[in-house]
Write the structure tokens for this entry.
Amino acid sequence: MSDIPNTLSAVCGAGESSHQLIHSVIVEWLRREVSPLIERVDHDASLFGLGIDSMGAASIGSQLEHETGKKLNPDVLYELETINELAEYLDGIQLSRRPVVTAECAEPRGDDHRSAAPASPSCGNGLMARYERLNRRVRSLKERKLYFFEPVISEHDGAWVVAEGQRMLMLGSYEYLGLLGHPHLKKRAVETIERFGTGHHGVRLLAGTTTVHRNLEKKLADFVGAEDAIVYSSGYVTNLATISTLVGPGDVVIGDRWNHASIVDGCRMSGADFLEFAHNDVQSLAEQLEKADGAKTLVVVDAVFSMDGDIMDLPATVDLCKRFGALLMVDEAHSLGVLGKTGRGVQEHFGLHPDDIDVKMGTLSKALAGCGGFVAGREELTTYLRHHARGYIFSGALPAGQASVAIAALEVLEREPELVARLQQNTHRYLAGLKSLGFDTAASVTPIVPIMTRTDGIALEMTRLCRSEGLLVIPVCYPAVPMDAPRLRTCVSAIQTPDDIDFALEVLTRAGKQTGLIA
Ligand SMILES: Cc1ncc(COP(=O)(O)O)c(C=O)c1O
């Protein structure tokens, strides 16, 4: 925030009341949070550049709501960059929540942030202005050396990588079992590519299916205790294609509020009435099931939540779905290979019956060290999906080489269940270490361990400090997580040694003390 005074100016475009109101709310916030000496802000200055993070935007937004009595959309507030843009948005609400747009410019949701874009002479220009806002943010972060997305990895060596030219311990990977460089997986991939080539002959339903795909589907079904499985080319596509096929207009789909974006997108795409319940709150789920009022209903939840590392209360969810006659779909992206004695996931963890989960979704891209996604369940279900899921029918097959990687990973997991035990031991050592140091790890009980940082600024500074000492951590801020919950998202792997974990704890301790996150 050292550059903040430079971005302030004596210019105050007085005259319009919403401009003045916004100006005074922002200056009040800056005085409180940044410096009591701040008096004025340029109406065209980037609020982000002034150091107003997502929580600042939330606080300013709620103050504006209080002052004006208007309901503001937090996503819009976060996107708008200057006092002038905010004023335009605020005035727009007063005049009309649905400004008239030409057919060419029309966006799907008339009252969302897109309609708040400044009026522009042409559609193209208006769109480019929106993209430019994000570009300015990215440039500003890069200039301040606070841009941490897409660190480029040039070498991979067990738990360690060379990223951005520096050797670092990887603490941000979903590669839970350490199979990414496993000789068995690599050998299988090479053999299969030699046999079938690098790609495919097309979509699965036409000419893209090989014996390897069928073997993988059989193996996955056996592994999770289902009749059959269907494999898609990515986990994201799996959720999108499956949910939007299983329910449609006139049906109801209900999801946990913290579900992964691919689930949310699938629910929205389905056209079914989409209801959400409070995170991991079965009472709230029951209320939504009541609301569904007898409609054909799908409930969809993550088994382990990807940003928080907590586990869904599946036994209670199963009971409720049975009581209300709803179909239950569970995303096992972060529980397969992770939960249960043998890594069979959430079903094994809770000792559920194989039939308790109707639609078992998983990815091949995390513990299985490959790429792709799958759904396992009754054969009627997989047959229906094969003939209706557009992401399956209209997208090229997962290459056979990748399918063989997942088979090989499952073979290793069956042969070496001790990998799962090692992952669980590492998780315990790491989590206990963080807690004893005074870090807030939210409700995590799995290898996904958030370190809550209170502000975006601390998340970024912690990341900078850790990476400078050779620890690759990932900052996560709004909109990936709620505005008031920025964090480092760290992940444990079975391949890390006790020394690796101690190293991570030492670096985090120094960074935590330097940023004031821990005493
Ligand atoms: C819970 C969850 N589901 C689905 C996906 C999508 O999987 P993939 O990365 O294999 O496309 C992810 C990815 O991170 C995830 O976390």
In short: DSSP finds 20 helices and 14 strands in the chain. Residues 1-15, 95-122 have pLDDT under 50 and may be disordered. Residues 158 and 181 are 7 Å apart (CA to CA). The pocket of pyridoxal-5'-phosphate is lined by residues 234-236, 239, 260, 262, 302, 306, 331, 333-334, 363, 365, 373 (CB under 6 Å).
